[in-house]
């Protein structure tokens, strides 16, 4: 997926959080310019008493992988910041909303240095935005 298209999904997701009363900061680090881990989006609401550090993954394939290094970086950032680490999934070739996985509880380890993300699991355990912010 092109960087421009991925950026559009990040902005779209940020807009959805804004409409739900969350402040949003986009801080992508996929360009490799930062040596420190940071999420794609940092969203929070004092009214709802929630802060999420979100890594967004877009996919055309039903199954893909996310490295354990990337997830551990998100977890470390979240611990320091006091945020809930979330992996947001957008299947661009399917008519599905953004779905959210809590880290590490909702992830499936693969044999290597990755977690496997598959559509069956994501649609079964992933939460929609409304569910995520109302938990």
Automatic annotation (TrEMBL):
Its cofactor is Mg(2+). Transmembrane segments: none annotated. One of its GO terms (biological process) is DNA recombination. It comes from the Archaea. It catalyses: Endonucleolytic cleavage at a junction such as a reciprocal single-stranded crossover between two homologous DNA duplexes (Holliday junction). One of its GO terms (molecular function) is DNA binding. SUPFAM superfamilies: Restriction endonuclease-like. InterPro entries: Hjc (IPR002732), Hjc_arc (IPR014428), Restrct_endonuc-II-like (IPR011335), tRNA_endonuc-like_dom_sf (IPR011856). Keywords: DNA damage, DNA recombination, DNA repair, DNA-binding, Endonuclease, Hydrolase, Magnesium, Metal-binding, Nuclease. Gene3D superfamilies: 3.40.1350.10. NCBIfam families: Hol_resolv_Hjc (NF040854). PANTHER family: HOLLIDAY JUNCTION RESOLVASE HJC. This is Holliday junction resolvase Hjc. It comes from Candidatus Heimdallarchaeum endolithica. The lineage of its organism: Archaea, Promethearchaeati, Candidatus Heimdallarchaeota, Candidatus Heimdallarchaeia (ex Rinke et al. 2021) (nom. nud.), Candidatus Heimdallarchaeales.
């Amino acid at each position: 997926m092109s960087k421009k298209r991925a950026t559009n999904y990040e902005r779209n997701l940020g807009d959805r959080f804004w409409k739900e009363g969350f402040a949003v900061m986009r801080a992508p680090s996929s360009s490799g310019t930062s040596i420190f881990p940071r999420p794609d989006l940092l969203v929070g609401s004092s009214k709802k008493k929630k802060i999420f550090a979100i890594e967004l993954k877009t996919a055309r394939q039903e199954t893909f992988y996310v490295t354990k290094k990337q997830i551990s970086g998100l977890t470390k950032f979240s611990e320091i910041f006091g945020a809930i680490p979330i992996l947001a999934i957008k299947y661009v070739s399917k008519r599905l909303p953004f779905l959210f996985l809590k880290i590490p509880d909702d992830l499936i380890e693969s044999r290597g240095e990755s977690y496997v993300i598959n559509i069956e699991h994501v649609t079964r355990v992933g939460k929609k935005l409304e569910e995520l912010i109302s938990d």
